[in-house]
Amino acid sequence: MYTFTEQFGVAVVALDGEINMQNAMSLRNWVVDNLIKKGKSKIVFDFAKVNSVDSFGLGTFVSLHKSALSANGVIAFAGPNENVKKLLAMTALDKVIRSYPSVMEAVNAIK
User: Which residues form the signal peptide (predicted)?
Assistant: First the structure.
C-alpha cells in the first residue's frame, strides 16, 4: 500500500494526495507493522505530493511520533507545502516534529 526506501539507515515513506480520516489509520498501521516493529524507527515522511492533511491525519502523526520515540527513533517531514506548514505551525506540531525542505536534509538531520 505504501512504499519506502532507505537512505543511511533512515526509512523514507513517500506520501501522495491527502492524509485524512479515510486513510490515516491504514498509514499508521502500515508504518507501525512494517517499519517500527521491524526496527526501522527513524522515518522521514516525504510530503512532496501531499495536498492536505486533516486533523485526523495530524493525530496519526502524533501517534507515530510517540511510537517511534518508544522504539528509540524519530520522525521528520520533508517538503510540506505552504498549507501543511501553516497547519503544523497553528497546531504547534512543528515544535514536536521537525520539517525540512528536502528528503535529503531530513535524512541527514535524523540519521
Answer: none
CATH superfamily membership of 4-110:
STAS domain (3.30.750.24)
Question: Structural domain boundaries of the chain?
Answer: 4-110
Task: Please tell me the distance from the alpha carbon of residue 55 to that of residue 41, in angstroms, as a whole number.
Answer: 23
- Is-contact 76 100, C-beta < 8 A? yes
To which residue does cell 512543528 refer? Answer: 94
Strand partners, 13: 4, 45
**Of 63, 71, 52, which is closest to residue 93 (Cα–Cα)?**
63
Residues of the chain with pLDDT under 50: none
pLDDT number for residue 3: 82
